[in-house]
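Notes from hallway chat w/ T.B., transcribed later so I don't forget. T.B. wanted the structure written out for a chain they're using in a teaching module, and asked if we could keep both sequence and structure tokens in one place. Agreed to drop them here.
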Amino acid sequence: MSCAASHTRRLDSIQRRALRLVDAADPPDPPTQFEPVIPLDSLEHRRDVAALVVFHKEQVQGGCTCAWLGYDSLRESPHEARERCLTSGDAVEVPRSRASQHQRTFVGRVSRMWNIFTAAVPHIQEMNTQSVKLAANRWRLSKPTPLTLVIL
């Protein structure tokens, strides 16, 4: 999430190579009627789901999981909320930055993802951690990999 793009690309290429090796070593057997074929989730997918769950713990459950990042709270102030006229009560302010490296940081990327996720998933305030994990997994499966977030 908050590492250089070259590092995440390297991890993704290692995953693709490992999947090719596993597919080559294991000849495909015809699946039986009771045995569904379940594809593996990409590392990016797993990182995104984990980030959304951590963000849910911070934003909704009021945990202090982001205190080590140097942020007291990621929720915007009432004044900023009135200024921006957010449609969702769960939306957070996306940090503004012109540098592409800063836009890839954890808070920047996950803030954008969180705002899209909360717009797509209703009743996020009433969900527990497991429900958010399942909803985030379903939501992320509906998006392409790699996930490109529009930076305005």
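Follow-up for T.B.: The two ends are 19 Å apart (CA to CA). Might be a good example for the class.
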